[in-house]
Amino acid sequence: MRGGVVPPALMFAALACMLAFAPAERRLAATLAAVAAALAVAQLPLPPKLVEVAFLGCWASLIVTAAMVHFSRNLIGYRPLAFAINAGAWAGATVAVAGTTRDLAAAAPWLALVFPGAWLVTTGRGVAVKVVSSWLIAIALLAAVLPIVPTPGYTPDHLE
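Above: the chain's sequence. Below: its structure in C-alpha cell form.
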C-alpha cells in the first residue's frame, strides 16, 4: 500500500462514491478539479522525509471523503469541489513522494465510478455505494494503522 497506483486509485474511488451523492451539476467540475489538483501536487518536489505524512494524510482524507456518503445532505454548494481538491491533492502527494505520474494516470479512471454510482443513487440503490465506501474506509484504516503498530519479531519481547 506504499506507492504505486493503489493509494491514488482508492482515493479516487472514494471520491467517486462521494460525488455519486453530490448534486449532478457539481460532479464534472469536482472530477476535473481532483485531477488538476493531483497533477499539480504530483509535480512538486516533495522531500522523501514526507512519505509518512503523505500517506497518513491520504488515508485520513480517504476516510473523511468516503464517510461523506453517509452525510450526503451536507454535499451542497461548493463542498463537493472542496472535497475533490483535497482528495486530488493527497493523491498527488502520494505520487510525488513514492510514485510516478503514470501511477496517477492509471488511477484516474477510477473516477469514472461516479457514473454507475450516481445511477445507483438515483434509482434508489445508493446503499450499494455506501457499502463500497465503508469497505474503502476499512482499507484506509488498516493502511493507516499498520505502519504504526509494531510488528512482532521486530520489537523486543518478554523473553529477551
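The radius of gyration is 17 Å.
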